[in-house]
Amino acid sequence: MTSAWPNLDDLLTRDEGAPVGWVGAPLGTGSVTPGRCDLAPGALRAVLRRIGRYDVDSGKELATTVNDRGDVVLEGLTIEQATAPLREAVAASTVAHQLTLLIGGNNAVTRPGVLGLADALGVPLTRVGLITLDAHFDLRSTEGGLGNGNPVRALREDGLPGTNICQIGLAPYANSRVMHEDALAGGHLVLTANDVRENGAAWAMDQALARLEPLDAILLDCDIDVIDRSQFPGAPGARAGGLSNLDFLEAAKLAAAFPKLRVIDLTEWDPLLDPTDLSALTAGGWLAEVLSGFEERP
Ligand SMILES: [Mn+2]
Q1: 192-to-82, 114, 197, 229, 248 alpha-carbon distances in Å
Q2: CATH number at residue 228
Q3: What is the Cα–Cα distance from 164 to 180, expressed in whole angstroms?
Q4: CA 256 to CA 258: how far, in whole Å?
Q5: Cα 59 to middle of ligand 1, angstroms
């Protein structure tokens, strides 16, 4: 801990006693736009050396260790086949750690994440909340099977009440009227990217956390395509008109400070789409902000 460049890589350990757990979920199949989101867990590990632990604003140095539980072996599996091993990995990590980082993979990992969280606590889905930072509702039909465009629909069909779902960052011209009306009719909290731009990330996340506070546990889905494409080119679904990088990071940090937030996923990052290191450095910054929020827990 006395190195000249204290960085996030120092905090990645193989210690079951660490407060935070890391579950790699390199799920690349079943995406609306085929890509290589399966490369993201490795790309995130590789960039950690470049992210310092010292925050010049607060004067604090991140010290929370993260137990790298490795990547769940998913090669060649469909999303349906991958669901059980991902669900078990998230449940085991949630039992062992106060917070679990579920590093996708495409957005289909969110459903096993929520199911594993409920398993770990031994509660029904009616006791679990879901917050999505996502440009999309992810309410596509499940008739053709599971995909990265329907995890929220699938969870509703599993029994997750719509009133337990808060969706932040919905992008203009990236969703259909039917999905929007479906979300509202189901009782979701719906805040668009423009709502966040006008009122701030704290305003948005505070509403979501206040609504879900009575529940037992919450999963935050960080679909990285919520960020404006100019600031995160490495997401196949990202468009112009998305959240600013700073609003995204602030929202993630605020959520991580909330003790009932037990799982945070990072999804839809395809490292090959960004020939620069902008997306990787932003993903690394996300981990720093999540750990910073975690260290603010009472
Ligand atoms: Mn999504």
Answers
A1: 31, 23, 9, 16, 13
A2: 3.40.800.10
A3: 16
A4: 5
A5: 35
**pTM (two decimals):** 0.97
> How many angstroms separate the alpha carbon of residue 10 from the centre of ligand 1?
31
pLDDT digits (tens, 9 = 90+) for 169-222: 999 999 999 999 999 999 999 999 999 999 999 999 999 999 999 999 999 999
Assigned domain for 37 exists: yes
- Residue type at 156 in one-letter notation: R
3-state secondary structure of 156: helix
Residues of the chain with pLDDT under 70: 1-2
Kindly state whether residue 1 falls inside one of the protein's structural domains: no
CA of 226 relative to ligand 1 center, distance in Å: 8
- Domains of the chain: total: 1
Ligand 1 center from residue 268 Cα (angstroms): 7
Cα(136) to ligand 1 centroid in Å equals 5
Query: Which class for 151: exposed (0-12), middle (13-18), buried (19 or more C-beta within 10 A)?
Result: buried
CB–CB of 257/17 below 8 Å? no
Q: How far is the CA of 91 from the centre of ligand 1 (A)?
A: 22
